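Question (not urgent): is this output format expected?
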Amino acid sequence: RAHARARAALAAPLHAPRAVPPFAASIKDGYAVRAADCAAPGADGAVTLAVAGASRAGDSDSESIGRLPALAASYITTGAPLPDGADAVVQVENVTLADDGQSVRVPAGIAAGQDVRQEGSDVAVGSEVIASGTVLTPADVGLAAMCGAAEVEVYGTPLVGVASTGNELFDSAAGAKGGADGAAAPGASQIYDANRPMLLAAVEAAVGDARDYGIICDTRDAVERVVDAAAADGADMLILSGGVSMGDRDYVKGVLSARGQVLCGRVLMKPGKPLTVATVPSEASRNGSMLVLGLPGNPVSALATFALVGAPALRALAGHPVGTQRMPRVRCVLETAIKLDRERPEYHRAVLTWRARENRYSAASTGRQISSRLGSFRGANALLELPRGAGELAAGTEVSALLLGDLGAAPASDAAMPTLPARAPLVPSGGGGAS
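Got this back:
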């Protein structure tokens, strides 16, 4: 059990331990009355009632009057409980208080229940408030608190280890020991490590508790030490970038095969062909095994494969329902022609724009899609699912797109799209099933 938090998945249904509201409460500032006392108006269409006490929200020192006397009205504030016997509220704007404050004129014809929230009208005591499996939103967190649920049963946040492999990498944030070998400054053939900071951020943005395992030297022993350490720490998932290709210092697949079971070592997709998925036994992990993702070393490939495979796996580990684990998919039309890859289906970085005139999304490529060009991911809000094939898809072709974020932040335009073919072809959902 834990305090309710956004993005956590509820492991058991939440039943209201208390009604909301727990008493009949006023919706307005005004006067609590008996509706029956307001049935016989005077010549001006109003009724005179004696003022008897007051009821103020949360004020234990309010002037308690017990049961509301006949032909009386009690001053009341928004959210305050109605006095016994009262069944309606007349808002303060519609009454006239006598100069001496001892009586009040209220309109005739007040209906019982006017401006009153009845006990349990929002939430009945014992009712199911939030179903098991629900991924909590801020509104759910507020609802749980409103019902008095100090703690709820939620699935735990997956612990995710992240490490980069490669002697060529230097950690810009590590000061005097930034290299995999502890060097004080990057060498002439070294580059700054982008993958690890990027993937640590991606894990946190998804639904994981990220743990940094640093940069791994290109030795089998170094890879083994990190895999063993993450398993001993109880990591639910370990993400390694690099070391999964065909080079003579790519040790990740060999270590994972020796330590556990490699489920796949290559995937027919672009980017991300060397993607490796494995499991390693771990008594410390919640499920008795640690899921390991070996991502390609190029930054674009690493981030794309995490979005397509890593983030959905994290959501599954966090107890999210199947329908919310995968990336949402929408249809869109291409603003310009895009060349296809002959060998592999492609997840093409793009920016979707809502076109109000056409009542649909258009997709603009982020440009050159080389796997090292991380700038092609910045600003992208979708991955276009493009089939493998010869030639190109013409402008105006309708394709499917997997969303990288909330389309509420997507650009919108009232301008017409560029001139498109009158009848654009329809392309089925893309060739890769990774999402």
